[in-house]
Amino acid sequence: MNNRFFAALVALAMVAAACGTTGDAATTTTTGGSTVTTVEDPGHRTESFEPGDVVRVDLPRTESAVTNADIAAVVAADTEFGLDLFEIVAADENVMISPYSIATALSMLYPGARGITAEEIAKVLHLTVDDATLHAVRNHIDTALAATPPPMGAEDTREPFTIRPANSAWGQGGYPFLDEYLAVLATDYGAGLRLLDYAGDPEGSRAIINQWVEEATEDRIKDLIPEGAITVDTRLALVNAIWFYANWFEQFDPDLTTPGTFTLLDGSEVEVPLMHASQRTGYAATDLFEAVRLRYAGDAAMVVLLPKDGSPAELAAQLTPSDLDINWGDRAVDLTLPPFEFEAEIGLKSALQQLGMKAAFEQPFGDGADLTGITEIRELFVSDAFHKTFIALDEEGTEAAAATAIIVSLESAPQPATFTADRPFLFWIEHSTTGEMLFLGQVTNPA
């Protein structure tokens, strides 16, 4: 598909006030379920849209064949990336990240990156597969996550197991996004371009994206993008969200939950509810940790690692993906686990910069951001990145949610210069084509 034709077709712009005058010619086209009205003016062509309209490349989401080795390579890379990131963001407070969500959002950015920018993203994500394989595996993982679980028995009163991943791309109407980039978002991430008017209504655009995130996470992730993060220079927001709900395969009996003491990192103790159960489940012990694997009533499990020494963050800093390939033994285990619930937010931009993804966040000059896979003009950079999570765990099961947003903006215009000729100055007049100096003079007193 020709880039210019595609841009004219789907890179929509808000109609200027003058476009509604008598004499304008209007045509209507429908693309991907969205109706677009094109208004012809003598001097320009613009198109109208409703914020949130979805414009899709003429390509449905399709799943390419991937091998088990390909899937394992990407999963191992995500695990290593997650451990790297956790080491940076984990301190003494409750914290949770979603390596899946962040890696998926960065993978949506990756096909638009070039040069050093792409190399740094690939290194941070520990990519060992080629680009096409990466996107095909991402597509496969999303499809697997969203697969309908086996039917539950008629007498099973547990809530149905649910994992709901979602991707979206929010672009400035009228901006010339490359069709090759949008094709990757559509075919491998199911993210048709949703149109917004950042330039005219940045706060309204932010509210629309945040509302989408809330709906995708059952209202668990609110205000993902904070006030002021979307500006008139924003051109694209790449968003991943995931919502998870699962009951334990073997639920804890609430009658066995009793008050108990929980020892904090500083050695002090607090009284909390503690759940108790005796289960036959996966158990392992190494020099670094004890671990149990608690199954959900669906295609998922929670692994709980108890450090032999030090804090959980210190344990995570020592772990490698191979350490997490645990050889589980089937053991009868007397379990004690506290119920808990918390929300977490991390400084994703600074964390990614610390991991080595620097060029993408720099102004697109020299060794700065090169996102010319998104648009031909080198004028975009990642202005910010956000990540929030939620988890609630009790006797019945677990609810968790996460969302990630990558904000792509135009380069900042240089600060206006000040030139005040209020003292003697030199001047010349030149011939522009040849550069020949035709006149040379000075002004010492213009009175």
Would you give an account of this structure?
- This protein is of the alpha+beta class and 447 residues long.
- The chain has 3 domains: 47 residues, no CATH class; 241 residues, Antithrombin, subunit I, domain 2 (Antithrombin, Chain I, domain 2); 87 residues, Alpha-1-antitrypsin, domain 1 (Roll).
- 24% of the residues lie in helices and 32% in strands.
- The chain has 9 helices and 17 strands.
- The strands form 4 sheets. The chain has a 7-stranded mixed sheet, sandwiched between helices. Strands 8, 9, 10, 11 and 12 form a 5-stranded antiparallel sheet that branches. Strands 1-2-3 form a 3-stranded antiparallel sheet, with no helix packed on it.
- α6 links the parallel β5 and β6.
- α2 crosses α8, α2 packs across α9 and α5 packs parallel to α6.
- The longest helix has 22 residues.
- The N and C termini lie far apart (63 Å).
Helices and strands, with pairings:
Layout: H1 3-10, E1 25-31, E2 34-40, E3 45-48, E4 54-55, H2 68-89, H3 99-109, H4 115-124, H5 131-145, E5 162-172, H6 179-189, E6 193-196, H7 202-216, E7 234-247, E8 258-263, E9 269-285, E10 289-295, E11 301-307, H8 312-318, E12 329-337, E13 340-346, H9 348-355, E14 380-393, E15 397-410, E16 425-430, E17 437-443
Parallel strand pairs: 5-6
Antiparallel strand pairs: 1-2, 2-3, 4-6, 5-7, 7-15, 8-9, 9-10, 9-12, 10-11, 13-14, 14-15, 16-17
Helix pairs in contact: 2-8, 2-9, 5-6
